[in-house]
Amino acid sequence: MYPFWEGLFIHSTLFVAVVSAFHVLASHITVAAVWFNFYLEYRAVKENREELYAYLKRSALGLLVFAYVFGAMAGVGIWQTTTAANPRGISTLIHNFVLYWGSEWYMFLIDVIGIIVYYYTFGRVSKETHLRLALILALGGTGTLSIIVGILSFKLTPGMWFETGQSLHGFFNTTFWPQIALRMAFMLPITASWALFVATGLPRGFYERERIIRYAARFGLIGLAAGVLIWLLWFEPSLPVHAKAILPSRAIPQPTFPIIYFGLIATLAGLLFAYFMPHKQHRLMAIGAMVVIFGAIFGAERTREVLRKPDIIFGYMSSNQLLFNDIPVRNIESEEARLSKTGMLGNLPFVPKVDNAIGIASEKTFGYADPEVIAGRMLAIQQCGSCHSVSKQTSIEVASVALDLRSLAKLLKTRNLTTAERIDNYIKSIGAFPYMHPFVGSDAERRALARYLEVFVQSTYPETTNQARLMR
User: Fold this and answer.
1) Across residues 279-294, what is the average pLDDT?
2) Among 151, 213, 153, CA closest to 182
3) C-alpha distances in angstroms, 16 versus 29, 78, 315?
4) Are 14 and 20 within 8 A, CB to CB?
5) Does a structural domain hold residue 228?
6) Phi, psi for residue 155 in degrees, rounded to 5
7) Dihedral of the alpha carbons of 293, 297, 298, 303, in degrees to the nearest 10
C-alpha cells in the first residue's frame, strides 16, 4: 500500500483528467496528422505537386513544436499525476506490462527522432526517401498508440488474465481491437482541426490552400461517422455488463454527456462548413475547433475511466488500492476480507493507528482534536478519497459555486444524512450500489468514518447542525 494524495484545491483525479485530456489531444494529433501528411506527400510525389510541400513543412514544424514537445511533457505529467493519485494501480501495470512499456518507449523514440529527421530533411533527400520517412514516422506513432491502448483496455477488461496470469491474455482483451478502431476513427476529426489550423496559415489565394482544407474536412467527416458507428456497433457491445450498467448511472458526473454531444455536433457542423466553404476558413475557427474537441476528449476520457468504477483495475483492485479478488495462478489473495476482520488502521502502511498518528502530528495537522474524528478522517481519505472530495482541501469556489469531485458533504446533505447514526446505516448499505465497494474495516472504524463525515457535512453546511440535533 502507498500513501494517498488528496490533491490541493483540485482533486487528484481531476489533475489526472486535465493532463490526460491534453496528452490525448496532442498524441492523437501526432499519429493521425502524420498519416494525413503521408497521404498528401504521396500525392505530391506521384502527381508531382510541388506546391503541397508548403503545407507539409508547416505541419511538420507545428507537430515538432506542439505535439511532440508539449505532448511529451504532458506524457511525463501523466506519469507524475497517476503515480501520485493511484501509485499501486500504476505499479500493477508496470509489473505486468514492463516489456510492453519498454516497446512503447522504443516506438516513441522512433517518433521523436523521426519527426526531427522528417522536418530537417525537406529538400535534402530525394522525394521518394522523404516519403519513406513519413511512412516510418506514421507507423511508429501507430505502434505507440497500439501498445498504450492494450494496457489501458486491460484496466477495464482483464479477460483471461484472471485465469492464466499471462500478460498477453491481459493485453489482447475484449475491448482492445474495438478501442483501437474507435481511437483511429476519432483521430481523423482531431487531425482535421490541426490541418485546418495549419492550412489557414497559408496565404489566401495560395494554389492548394482550399483543396487541403477540403481534404482535411473530408478526412474528419469520414472519421466522425466511422467513430460513431464503431461506438454503437462494436465498442459499446463489447463492454462488460458492469460497464453498461455504469453508463446511465449517476457515477458519470454531469455534465459529461452534454459536453461530449455538443463536441460531436459542433465538430460535425465545423467540418461541413469547412468542406463546403473552404475559402471562408480562418485560423481562429480552427483554434475554436480544437478547444471544442479538447472538451469532448475530456468528457470521453473521463467516461472511459469511470466505466470500471469502483475499480482501478476491474475485478482485481478497487479504486482505494485494495485487492479484492483471489488470483491463484499469481498467488494473489483478497485483502478486503482480511482487513475487514483485522481493521484498517495500523494494518496498512501509511494508515497508522490513531494513537500513533496523534503522537506524531498535532491537532493543527489534522484539524480535529477528537481521536475518533481523526481516525474517521484517515479512513475517509483511504476508503473514499479516490472518487470523492472528502474534505475542503480539494474544493475551490468560483463565483460562490464549489468546484469539487462528488463531494461527500454535498451528497450526504442532499440525502438528508447529517447525523453519524444515519450516515453509519448508509455506509452499511453501500455494497448494494453497483459502482461502490462495501466499507472495509472493523465496526468501530466504520462508526469513526460516520463520525468524521457528520463533522464534515456540518462544517461544510452549518445549517445542518440544528437539523441534526432535531433528528437526535
Assistant:
1) 90
2) 153
3) 20, 6, 22
4) no
5) yes
6) -65, -30
7) 140
| Statement to judge: residues 263 and 185 lie in one domain | yes
Helix/strand/coil for 318:
strand
pLDDT digits (tens, 9 = 90+) for 224-233: 999 999 999 9
More confident residue, 357 or 215: 215
Nearest to 289 by CA among 272, 303, 277, 306: 272
pLDDT tens, position by position, 76-124: 899 988 888 889 899 999 999 999 999 998 898 898 899 999 999 999 9
CA dihedral for 459, 463, 465, 467, sign (positive or negative): negative
Q: Are residues 126 and 249 in the same domain?
A: yes
Residue range(s) defining the domain that contains residue 136: 7-318
- The last residue of one of the domains, among 318, 335, 361, is 318
3-state secondary structure of 310: coil
Q: Assess if residue 1 is contained within a domain.
A: no
Q: Is residue 146 part of a domain?
A: yes
> Which pLDDT band, with edges at 50, 70 and 90, does 366 fall under?
low
- Cα separations (Å) of 345 from 195, 354, 454? 55, 7, 20
DSSP 332-372: B--SHHHHHHH-STTTBTTB--HHHHHHHS-HHHHS---HH
Residues 111 and 169 in one domain: yes
Residue keyed to cell 463492454: 239
pLDDT at 346 over 90: no
- 310 shares its domain with 395: no
Q: Say if residue 129 is in the same domain as residue 258.
A: yes
Residue linked to cell 455534465: 255
Of 318, 339, 360, at which residue does a domain stop?
A: 318
pLDDT for 243 beyond 60: yes
**In the structure, what pLDDT confidence band is assigned to residue 362 with cuts at 50, 70 and 90?**
very low
247 contact partners, CB below 8 Å, separation of at least 6 = 239, 303, 307
Split into its structural domains, the chain has a count of 2
Residue 301 to residue 374: CA distance in whole angstroms: 35
The three grid cell numbers given for residue 101, joined into one nine-digit string: 512499456
What CATH code is carried by the domain that includes residue 445? 1.10.760.10
Residue 323: inside a domain, yes or no?
A: no
202 conformational bin, left if phi > 0, alpha if psi -120 to 50, beta if neither: beta
Question: What is the CATH number for 166?
Answer: 1.20.1630
For residue 21, the model assigns a pLDDT of 87
The terminus-to-terminus CA distance of the chain in angstroms comes to: 38
